[in-house]
Write a structure and sequence with these properties.
Layout lengths: L1 H12 L1 H15 L2 E2 H11 L3 E3 L9 E2 L8 H8 L6 E5 L2 E5 L4 E11 L10 E4 L5 E3 L5 E8 L4 E5 L6 E4 L10 E4 L3 H4 L13 E3 L6 E3 L1 H7 L7 H5 L5 E3 L7 E3 L8 E4 L2 E2 L4 E2 L4 E2 L8 E5 L14 E5 L9 E6 L3 E11 L3 E10 L7 H11 L3 H6 L6 E20 L2 E19 L1
Parallel strand pairs: 2-5, 6-12, 17-22
Antiparallel strand pairs: 1-3, 4-5, 6-9, 7-8, 7-10, 10-11, 13-14, 14-21, 15-16, 17-18, 19-20, 21-22, 23-24, 24-25, 25-26, 26-27
């Protein structure tokens, strides 16, 4: 046995044998450059390769293990590159072919529900070429490129699929199944930012704080309205395009709690709910809770909108006035006693008394459609009708700070609605 061990040790120490063994181990366990893979094939066969070393630089190949079937070996070696080969006897030519035209098509479905995936992204990596799946999950486009370029299919919440163009058959449009991304849905999802400016996470109960002025100016296409601006948040919408009849997490409008200065606001709309009853030009803070709530709000089925005026003492006179297509408004804030007592006043009134607002007319047309008023309007030659619509609201708040730790607040709010309709022959 001692002689056998010595003989084996001498063989292993022989430079040529050690080099061959090392090369065999390397080719079996590591990814090679394309040139290394070609050299391994040449060393293990009678084939001679003809290629430009500078052309194949930067491309890699999986390790070469078995060269019994030379065509299969060459296909595997050139799989990650754009090159093709031609055999002429024992000579193999490696060359760069012309880019091929590919027709890329298929249908995408969900692995669990077997439903179509609408709007999935299909693109060629590293290029601007691609498309999206349609309402039936189908996609189709054409691309001219190299066989090793990667096609990527991605859809939010699903695992990404990647494969080279050479796997696509031009005469088939297969159905591809996308699996749920378990890494995404198996762990907690934390929202850190929003596409809309002016929305931030409240530290308490995962509520939302709205910077109403920024949101309404930059993202709202309607008039300034707090309850309509709140509908920019996901999970909040209106059942009839009005301001006050909002649903939060699918709740009934009557199940929501709308607070103004900490007091429930039961009549939250003007013009039959089309406009909110809160003056948007005087509001300071808006907090919205869609899930968990502070116990102070009591048990709620729907959501909570908590709105309030400023709680800061005024050091000087501040005022503003303006008008929109529905109302006139004014706001005042001034100190009664510097750094001690501040008075805030605001009010709004509809402008129908000045001129017939087209915006208010469109609101009333929407409210009264399919009603008796709408029916009577069709017989304007026989019936004479007359209607008037007025609304107003006002706020007052007194802030008193007797000491640094004590703040006393007193708020007043009121609104009025006046609608008259008459007809005669």
């Amino acid at each position: 046995m001692g002689y056998i061990k010595c003989l084996a040790l001498i063989i292993l120490m022989t430079p040529g044998v050690a080099q061959l063994l090392g090369q065999a181990i390397e080719t079996n366990t590591k990814t090679l450059t394309l040139q290394q893979a070609i050299e391994v094939i040449e060393s293990r066969s009678d084939y001679v390769f003809n290629y430009d070393p500078n052309l194949i630089k930067g491309y890699t190949s999986d390790a070469v293990t078995d060269i019994t079937d030379i065509d299969q070996v060459l296909n595997n070696v050139l799989y990650k590159s754009p090159f093709l080969y031609e055999k002429d006897g024992q000579t193999i030519l490696i060359y760069y072919p012309e880019p091929q035209r590919y027709r890329i098509c298929g249908t995408l479905i969900d692995a669990m529900g077997r439903t179509a995936l609408i709007g999935a992204n299909i693109s060629i990596l590293g290029t601007s070429s691609g498309t999206q799946s349609d309402l039936s999950g189908y996609f189709e486009f054409e691309y001219t490129g190299d066989k090793h370029q990667l096609l990527e299919i991605s859809y939010l919440g699903y695992q990404v699929i990647q494969f080279p163009l050479q796997e696509i058959l031009n005469d088939e449009c297969p159905t591809r199944v996308l699996e749920i991304d378990k890494d995404l849905f198996g762990s907690e999802i934390i929202i850190t930012d929003y596409l809309l400016d002016g929305i931030s996470i409240d530290d308490n109960y995962m509520g939302f704080k709205l910077d109403f002025e920024r949101l309404s100016k930059q993202h709202s296409t309607a008039e300034h309205d707090i309850l309509k601006t709140a509908q920019l948040l996901p999970g909040i919408n209106s059942i009839d395009d009005s301001a006050s009849n909002i649903q939060i997490r699918g709740s009934d409008p009557g199940q929501n709690l709308i607070l103004w200065e900490g007091v429930p606001l039961y009549n939250a709309g003007h013009v039959f709910g089309m406009i909110s009853a809160i003056n948007p030009f005087t509001v300071d803070k808006v907090s919205i809770y869609k899930g968990a709530y502070n116990p102070k709000y009591d048990n709620r089925v729907g959501g909570i909108l908590d709105m309030s005026l400023s709680n800061e003492l005024s050091n000087g006179f501040k005022g503003s006035a303006g008008t929109t297509m529905t109302e006139m408004h004014s706001n005042l804030s001034f100190p009664l006693i510097d750094n001690k007592v501040t008075l805030e006043l605001s009010g709004r009134k509809s402008i129908n008394g000045i001129f017939d607002s087209p915006t208010l007319s469109s609101y009333t047309d929407k409210v009264f459609q399919f009603s008796i008023i709408d029916d009577q309007a069709k017989y304007d030659e026989l019936l004479r009708t007359e209607q008037s619509l007025q609304f107003s609201d006002w706020n007052a708040k007194i802030l008193y700070r007797p000491s640094e730790r004590i703040m006393i607040k007193t708020s007043f709010y009121g609104n009025a609605q006046d609608f008259n309709y008459s007809f005669w022959l």
